[in-house]
Amino acid sequence: MKIKIAIVDDHLLVINGLKTMLAPYQHIEIVFDTQDGNKLLDELDLYKPDVVLLDIQMPEIDGMELCRKVHKVSPETGIIALTNFTESHYIKQMLRNGAAGYLLKNTDQPTLLKAIETVYNGQQYLDESIKSSLLNEIITGQKRTPYEIPLTRRESEILKLIAEEYTNQQIAEKLFISLRTVETHRLNLTQKLAVKNTAGLVKEAMKRGLLD
Amino acid sequence: MYALMGLSTTLHQMKRYQEADDFLQQTIALGKAINAGYELRITYKVAAENKEALNQLGAALAFRKLYETLNDSLMSDDTRKHVMQQEIISQTAIKDKDLAEKKLTITQKEQQLQAKNKWLIIIGLIMALLFVVAGIFFMKFRYRQKLHIQRLQTLRKEKEVQLLESFIQGEERERTRISKDLHDSVGGMLSAVKMHFSAIRQESESLRESPAFGHALGLLDEAVGEVRKTAHNLMPEMLTRYGLAEALQIFCKNISHAQTLQISFYGTGNIRRFKPNFELSVYRIVQELVNNIIKHSRATSALVQLSQHGQLLTITVEDNGVGFDQQSTGKNGMGLNSLQSRIRALNGSLEIEAATGQGTTAYIEFDTERLEVEVTEQNQLS
């Protein structure tokens, strides 16, 4: 039984490149390719591809949108995103929209083959560089403790003044800025330092040694 | 005198003539002494009659004569006095008349004067009224002129802003076109080339082992990456898809160099989506500020902070670099001026705080009223 592949990419060159890469493998058959994503939706029933190689950035229909629609119409079809985007936002979005795999376009033949086979077997496949990128984000994306978040100079200044019992109005007058600006800085401070009120702010100011 | 007169007269009437004569003599002497004409006259008369009664006719006659002489002189005196009095009276009358006439003329004159004054006041009032009306018209005119000038200025400013906006838009359009071209033609082609080479490599045992071929493939990968990065810089697709916060975060991450410059990004508050043009402009502004840091500041760490509370979007870009002297703005100042006008064109304000050796802080505020757009379903999912 051959694995039926559909390719959607707005570049004909890429389609041909993929065809060339997949040509040596006898168990893989490219049943459909198109530069217009909407056509895939129309022809989905006719060709019933097992795996769709899907570009994200296309002029007619957005790859993410297409992914969601294909997954909704035919959940058993495995979708592999094939793109140049490395940002985790795209990866997460595609996976949420039903994609089972995520590959970069500069992938090599073995990786492509492995991805297709994995997804065909109902599992998920992520490019190695994508995996590390996601992992990296999980590590760095951790909620930082308030200590690690640097304050801007203006924020430090305002925090100090708050600790010295200045009112917003007084701070505005002292620093020659508008009351609204002071209020914004204050809100930012409260959020950045994850405190609830002025008492929390003063505590932070003390911790940071702003009060000599 | 009168006592003597009375006594002598009484004595005469009581017919005690001899005694009366004595007193009359005394009275006459006294009257002569004090020159009392009228009394003397009466006394003479009484004396004459008394002498007559005493039968001294000669003396009586003498007194009679004296009486008459005195009477005459007194009469003329009286007449004179009377005439004088009359004269005085008439003169007074004339004077009074004159006075009255004068008074009349004065009153007339006064009346005339009053009339004149009345007219003067009326004319004055009219003049004042005219002045006021003229003043009002003048003020109105001035006000209109001022308004006109103001309107002209606003128009000119709007025109400038429009010009700037269209200039920026044109620039952005061109960038988008180049970005698309890069992505569509070069990017796709390079990817395809890579795929073909990759396929070829699998076919040939020798190529699979060749380090040179592997290196060439690696370079191709890099080329693909570079094209993508360039295209992204020209037109960040992250921005249109996910908005400012995500796009700027990615930008900071991409531009950071582990060794030289670490750029952190913080987004606080509820950062919403805005009109594409506005988002792109803000993105470019931050891009330029960060590029300035890379080029001039020699900083080791920088901070890009984006926050939105209510309808106030604020951006802080701060570094720990060498800063610059705000007074001596050279070429750097030119760049800041262009930033300033771009931000003002977006109804925002830029505040730069810098001092030599103390780093630089750029603080930007935008009022985002009328700039926000509804979030689409797709974006909400992210």
Order of strands across the widest beta sheet of chain A?
Answer: 2-1-3-4-5-6
Give me the count of strands of chain A: 6
Mean pLDDT of chain B: 84
The strand line-up of the biggest sheet of chain B is 1-2-3-5-4
As residue ranges, the low-confidence spans of chain B are: 377-382
Estimated radius of gyration of chain B: 65 Å
CATH class of the domain at 237-381 in chain B, named Alpha Beta
Secondary-structure element string of chain B: HHHHHHHHEHEEHEEH
Low-confidence stretches of chain A: none
* Architecture (CATH level 2) name of the largest domain in chain A: 3-Layer(aba) Sandwich
What fraction, in percent, of the residue positions of chain B are helical? over 70%
Morphology of chain B? rod-shaped
Major β-sheet profile of chain A: 6 strands, parallel
- Round the Cα radius of gyration of chain A to an integer and report it: 26 Å
Give the amount of beta strand of chain A, in percent: 5-15%
Structure class of chain A: alpha/beta
Question: What is the assigned CATH homologous superfamily of the largest domain in chain A?
Answer: Response regulator
Q: How widely separated are the two ends of chain A?
A: 77 Å
Report the β-strand fraction of chain B as a percent range.
5-15%
What does this structure look like?
The complex is a heterodimer of chains A (212) and B (382). Chain A has 10 helices and 6 strands, in the order E-H-E-H-E-H-E-H-E-H-E-H-H-H-H-H. Chain A has 2 domains: 3-140, Response regulator (Rossmann fold, 3-Layer(aba) Sandwich); 146-207, Arc Repressor Mutant, subunit A, CATH 1.10.10.10. In chain A, helix 7 packs across helix 9 (179-192). The termini of chain A are far apart. Chain A is elongated and about 75 Å long. In chain A, helix 4 (88-96) links the parallel strand 4 (78-83) and strand 5 (101-104). Chain A has helices spanning 12-22, 37-47, 63-73, 88-96, 109-120, 128-140, 153-163, 168-175, 179-192, 198-207, and strands at 3-8, 28-34, 51-54, 78-83, 101-104, 125-126. In chain A, strands 2-1-3-4-5-6 form a 6-stranded parallel β-sheet, sandwiched between helices. With 212 residues, chain A is an alpha/beta fold. Chain B has a domain at 237-381: Heat Shock Protein 90, CATH 3.30.565.10. Chain B is 74% helix and 10% strand. The model of chain B is unreliable at 377-382 (pLDDT under 50). The longest helix of chain B has 147 residues, at 57-203. Chain B is rod-shaped, with a radius of gyration of 65 Å. Chain B is of the alpha+beta class. Chain B has 11 helices and 5 strands, in the order H-H-H-H-H-H-H-H-E-H-E-E-H-E-E-H. In chain B, helix 4 (57-203) packs across helix 10. The chains are: A alpha/beta (212), B alpha+beta (382). The A-B interface holds A 9-11, 13-14, 16-18, 20-21, 23-24, 57, 64-65, 84-85, 87, 89, 92-93, 96-97, 105-110, 149-150, 152-154, 180-181, 183-184, 187-188, 191-192 and B 183-184, 187-189, 191-196, 198-199, 201-203, 217, 220-221, 224-225, 228, 237-238, 241-242, 246, 250, 264, 266, 268-269, 303, 305, 307, 309, 312, 314, 316, 318, 353, 359, 361, 363, 365, 378, 381-382.
